[in-house]
Amino acid sequence: MPQPADDMDAVAVRTWCSLALQALGREREAIDAINVYPVADGDTGTNLYLTLESAAQAVEAVFAAHETEATVPLTADAVRAMAHGALIGARGNSGTILAQLLRGMAGVLAEGHDADHLRRALTTAAVAARDAVAHPVEGTVLTVADAAAGAAGRTGDDAGTRAVARAAYEGALTALEATPGQLAVLGRAGVVDAGGRGLVTVLGALVEAVGGQTPERPRTGPVPVVTASEDCPQDGPAFEVVYLLEATDEAVDRLRPRLDGLGDSLVVVGGDGLWNVHVHVDDAGAAVEAGIEAGRPYRIRITHFDADRVHHPAEPVQRAVVVVVPGDGLRGLCEEAGATTVLARPGEPPASGELVDAIRRAHAREVVLLPNDTELRHTAAAAAEQVRAEGIRVALIPTRAAVQGLAALAVHEPDRSFDEDVVAMTAAAGATRYAELTVAERQSWTMAGICQAGDVLGLIDGDVAVIGEAVPETARKVLDRMLSAGGELVTLVLGEDVPDSLAEVLEEHVREGYLAVDTVVYRGGRQCAPLLVGVE
């Protein structure tokens, strides 16, 4: 381990991440055991550990890139890697808030790494974390972060980095011990806030990284194991929904109140086009749909807090999936999988009456409806509302393209509970990016520039991203754009007049350029687009 220095340079950042990860590893079970708020699900310590692990791995990657040149990374590179790693690896409510704390610190430490910058970094972090939480509550990690920043800010101008770090730690520890008196659920359970204890652990590692001395551990006494009880009410939302989101600031500003209206414990952290979204809801599909409308959600994780809150039928219930398909080929494929289909002919989207007829034709008491078209969402919602009045339970999954519907259908399991099935299908659809190739009918302006009549257009997630002269060339560029963000499976749906040779060319392109990415090919038959593409 490098010798500690009174400075927050890149080596100190690396040491801090390593020590914090070790400390959270030691404290993980104890922190899990006192996890009461906002949900007594016993995972706060684990979530903090996994979040910090992602941050530490990102910092190590930066140092590894410099090993060949025998150089040390800039502090700015190290702290930005730490923040990005925490953001993409954040788990749970506590991990998401920790990611925002680290991001807030990184923004200041990237500009300088002396004591004054550390003071300002702690203040910026506390403010950023509080702003990220929809409804801040005192007696939580937010209170502990505020106390750490306040104590650091009260150090004198002549104080060094070690003194600032120790003041922050001691201020946080004092605030942590006071949390049972600030939050009633903690007082009843006889524990301190779990997230706050995790932050004290991370700040203790900071003291050790810059000062070389292990600080006093939190004086929290014996650790009781907290379980759901009268002291820990379990009448909140049934699901935790977490996903990464590529979206603009404006889209996220619109997303926050929408998610806030769906549930509680909303935390949205990040910036510069990449966000981590965390919320507790009863309607997990609606939370994912909101993300889809705001941008591109991926790495979607949906967790049941309490299986007893999920609908479990007392007896077997017949269930069906109704799918809108753009061509005869996909119609046959979906029907082979057991779905009831509605054909959307080019230029003739189905009306709500057709969807109602299809749902009735399925003869099921539970139906999952996949519209597979953004323009059909309201039509599908109207159809679902109509048949619900007839006693049919309908879940509308807001699939925007046929390839998202295929992904949802692939994970459909009628033997599990209805809610669990809908959650899994919604997550699969939301994790699938979609594209299509079409031919321009006239000259027009697009997101990718001016196109001429006859040009081949590559639309990704509904927007024109590539303009080309030939289908193979345009398709390759579309695939490269989509796979640049990662992927494990490419789905190609060929139109009626498209030769098999196109699939062979594209399969070879994926095989040669992207290791461990599989490709599946289907014939769509007579459909409006010559090629549909999905990337999961």
Which value, in Å, is the CA radius of gyration? 26 Å
The total strand number stands at 16
Strand order of the largest sheet: 13-12-9-16-14-15
Mean of residue pLDDT values? 87
How far is the first residue's CA from the last residue's CA? 41 Å
Helices and strands, with pairings:
Elements: H1 10-33, H2 44-67, H3 75-89, H4 92-109, H5 115-132, H6 141-153, H7 161-178, H8 184-189, H9 194-211, E1 239-246, H10 249-260, E2 263-271, E3 274-281, H11 284-294, E4 296-304, E5 319-325, H12 328-336, E6 340-343, H13 352-361, E7 366-370, H14 377-388, E8 393-396, H15 402-410, H16 418-430, E9 433-439, E10 444-446, E11 449-451, E12 456-460, E13 463-468, H17 471-483, E14 489-495, H18 500-513, E15 518-525, E16 531-535
Parallel strand pairs: 5-6, 5-7, 7-8, 14-15
Antiparallel strand pairs: 1-3, 1-4, 2-3, 9-12, 9-16, 10-11, 12-13, 14-16
Helix pairs in contact: 1-2, 1-3, 1-9, 2-3, 2-4, 3-4, 4-5, 5-6, 5-7, 6-7, 6-9, 7-9, 10-11, 11-16, 13-14, 15-16, 17-18
Keywords:
single chain; 536 residues; alpha/beta
